[in-house]
């Protein structure tokens, strides 16, 4: 009898912990997806002293300030709009990453850097459309010479935007099929389909247009497993170029010279 009581208490505790975990995943899921950081004053000073980098801000229709940077050179005709990873402040990236034959424009997501507001899938998608449209209106990009690039989380934003607007091509670095699918693989015992608000269903958008794509991924990626990337490849409705770097991991795949060269070749 005593043993049964102990077993019952253990079962009740397990059920309680499971339900408690469900509540945590539901209420705090944005904290598991988005990792914003504020600007470093030293980095901002360095960027402002760089003659090839310009600061740009945009106010969205719902009065949110989006903080962005343009890396521009007079002899470059093509432009990359870049959407960064979930832990990247673009001020820490835009000064170090460059492609010889393209300008680069990147905005911090809401709550990242000096951008206001709150990050969510809905907001990132609407902001991507707003950024593209406003850059067109400002004459800063030409739809026939613009490429959309995404890194990690940003690949979902890039895939969505490229399905809704005219682009010359898409560059995806360590992409996924969906955040829902990645989450299911990490939390197999939870009903992720019903809990997750930010699904980032890239395979839903990848089939909508026949955009050429360059996909770069890493053999030692522990965050987005290769089968998530390969499932996206199966669902891409356009010409596909792939670069697989076996020894690279999720965070350093762009540090390889092959990655920069592949991007340069893709946008020629």
How is this structure best described in words?
- This protein has 268 residues and is of the alpha/beta class.
- It folds into two domains: 1-33; 35-266, Rossmann fold, CATH 3.40.50.
- The chain is built from ten helices and eight strands.
- An eight-stranded mixed β-sheet has the order 1-2-4-3-5-6-7-8, with helices on both faces.
- A hairpin with a 5-residue loop joins strand 1 and strand 2 (65-71).
- Helix 4 crosses helix 5.
- The longest helix has 26 residues, at 2-27.
- It is globular, with a radius of gyration of 20 Å.
The first-level CATH class name of the largest domain: Alpha Beta
Number of helical stretches of at least 4 residues: 10
The CATH topology name of the largest domain reads Rossmann fold
Instruction: Return the domain count.
Output: 2
Please state the structural category.
alpha/beta
Major sheet description: 8 strands, mixed
CATH superfamily descriptor of the largest domain: Alpha/Beta hydrolase fold, catalytic domain
- Spatial order of strands in the largest sheet: 1-2-4-3-5-6-7-8
**Could you list the spans in which at least 5 consecutive residues all have pLDDT below 50?**
none
Distance between the termini: 76 Å
Helix fraction by DSSP (H/I, runs of at least 4): 25-40%
Order of helices and strands: HHHEEEEHEHEHHHEHEH
| Strand tally | 8
CATH architectural arrangement of the largest domain: 3-Layer(aba) Sandwich
